[in-house]
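[Meeting: bench + compute handoff]

Bench side (C.D.) handed over the final construct sequence. Compute side (W.E.) agreed to return the predicted structure before the next meeting so the bench team could plan truncations. Sequence as handed over:
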Amino acid sequence: MIRIRSHRWAISVALSVVLTACSHQTPPPQPSPDLKPGEVVGIVLSALQTNDEPAADTGIATAFAFASPGNQDNTGPLPRFIRMVEAGYAPLLDHRNAEIGPPATDGDRLIFPVRVYPREGAVRLYLFIMAKRTDAGCNGCWVTDGVVDQTEDVPPELSI
């Protein structure tokens, strides 16, 4: 009987330590009207750069959280979005560095050119299309309306 209690006590202590450690993790960033559009691009890039920290595909999940409702409707749910990013946007995952250029205006959207230095392979250029939400879900929040790989066809006004 004493032996069973000591095992229960050890398991209880171990579980307490794990729960305490997990409770001190910083929650993933979420859209906020306080974030500027360039900051959102930076948050998404940083999340993708460390995609599997603190858990697998956390970075992709953060990118999905910052996607516009229309973008989420077209690319989600999250498991489908993860497969899409892994298949079509792999150079963004765990990249070495990224440089965000000045935005161009396209109506009520901003387009940020981003030069990405992948872990392997040639430098890539992506256009992050940012839109400001006007719905009650997050009024005034800048979100990603789309990301387009423009490595092969870069207009001069969008070059970095």
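W.E. noted at the follow-up: The helical segments are 2-23, 37-49, 58-65, 69-75, 78-88. C.D. will use this when planning the next construct.
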